[in-house]
From TrEMBL:
<dbReference type="Pfam" id="PF13561">
    <property type="entry name" value="adh_short_C2"/>
</dbReference>
<dbReference type="InterPro" id="IPR002347">
    <property type="entry name" value="SDR_fam"/>
</dbReference>
<protein>
    <submittedName>
        <fullName>Uncharacterized protein</fullName>
    </submittedName>
</protein>
<comment type="similarity">
    <text>Belongs to the short-chain dehydrogenases/reductases (SDR) family.</text>
</comment>
<dbReference type="Pfam" id="PF00106">
    <property type="entry name" value="adh_short"/>
</dbReference>
<dbReference type="InterPro" id="IPR036291">
    <property type="entry name" value="NAD(P)-bd_dom_sf"/>
</dbReference>
Amino acid sequence: MKLAGKVAIVTGGASGIGEETARRFAKQGARAVVIADVQDELGREVASSINAGIATSSPSSALPSLSSSGPAQTVLGLDLEAMDRVLAVNVRGTAACVKHAARAMVEGRVRGGSIVCTASVAGSTGGRGMVDYYLSKHAVVGLVRSASVQLGEHGIRVNCVSPYVVATPMALRGFGGEKDAEWVESTVGVNMSLKGVADAVVFLASAESELVTGLDLVVDGGYKGHRR
Ligand SMILES: NC(=O)c1ccc[n+]([C@@H]2O[C@H](COP(=O)([O-])OP(=O)(O)OC[C@H]3O[C@@H](n4cnc5c(N)ncnc54)[C@H](O)[C@@H]3O)[C@@H](O)[C@H]2O)c1
């Protein structure tokens, strides 16, 4: 019961890492879990299975959080409009969440508040493609570091988790929809699991990490791809 009495909002909680996180928050005793997502039906199903609340927005605002043009998105061929769409979700969306979560905590005089963003190993490495995704995740790490410096005086911690590949719908789309979860788990995301990533989020959300802030917690199961 690491989160007993806590109130949590999980954005992107209808699927993948967010869904598993919402489930684990509920299991760890959170008093209230709110799922915020653009997939209304899926969000409702997850929410009712864990007794959580749901906040949805128009599905038309759903945007890919992975590179729109995938491996083809190189520096030389950079599609700036596709890049803007990725940045709108991954950077602007994350910044808006951090801003409004922090304002609510400061105005509500919440002590011990914890904001956990989802970056990626792509936030501290370079890649051969998906340059928009890599740069967006570096921005998330920069946001976390600055926010942690500024919000510490209000008793708010800001950290991020940086997973390697986990077989979620988004990751499968990243492989062009040609590979299934089993293939991803046995070839790319070896040692990775949704549970492992969600456990890291629970750690950062709980009092177990009460002195930890500004951390980019890499959750990669030993992946050796940290080339800079
Ligand atoms: N799966 C991986 O391998 C992996 C690795 C590293 C980082 N990540 C990051 O983890 C996060 C979650 O990804 P996932 O793999 O669980 O994907 P996913 O597709 O399973 O889940 C993402 C959820 O976010 C929701 N969403 C998308 N745009 C939204 C918006 N504008 N507002 C609200 N909700 C929105 C989707 O509807 C979906 O339910 C992403 O930031 C991703 O970049 C994933």
